[in-house]
Amino acid sequence: MSVNSKLQRAFEQGRALKIISGLNNFDAANVAAVVKAADLGGASFVDIAADRDLVLMAKQLTNLPICVSAVEPEKFVPAVEAGADLIEIGNFDAFYAVGRRFEAEEVLQLTRETRSLFPNITLSVTVPHILALDKQVQLAIELVKAGANIIQTEGGTSAQPIHAGTLGLIEKAAPTLAAAFEISRAVSVPVLCASGISSVTAPLAIGAGAAGVGVGSAVSQLNSEVAMIAAVRSLVEALALVSRSHLPASI
Fold it and tell me: How far apart are alpha carbons 244 and 246 in whole angstroms?
């Protein structure tokens, strides 16, 4: 299943960059700033909450493909009607702090329900990092069978870096990098490595087998649009340095 041709090429070249405003972020001003930063900074696409008004606003601000995230399939309906280009089941990080877990069977069922509602739209699904790595791989395989076109990894919230600087950034990204490495070797669809990724670790994600990266708080929590744009550009430049010896399967 294909999407915007420029986004498709970004995945094929291992340079796809998704900027995430947050599944539970309904602050229109912040979402607008994130979307504009993604656009001006050179990102491949944006990921916002599955909300009709946010989608309509984002479409006024950018021509980038718009992905919407939710964990309830029915929430995708008004967002897709408003013009969302992709949908994402996941960005589960926002729920772990309040004790909400997503187990394999629930994620698989959500995927089946969502694909039933939307048989043709490009569907990305996050594999919960709370699962053991071998279970993450198995779930990813099942998700692709159920209709997922992109698999997203996570793990930044479970990482416990003990060092500052570059070493700490690598420690923070380790869980999602490990998942990307294992899952990318088990599925034929693009893997997007997200959660805890920075300009330091984005190239490592591509080296591990991911076709792109997703970045959220490292951009959305900055206190000015100028800083957000600079952060996005830094990520774009980091990905541009990576050379790929093989191309991933098409979406």
Answer: 6
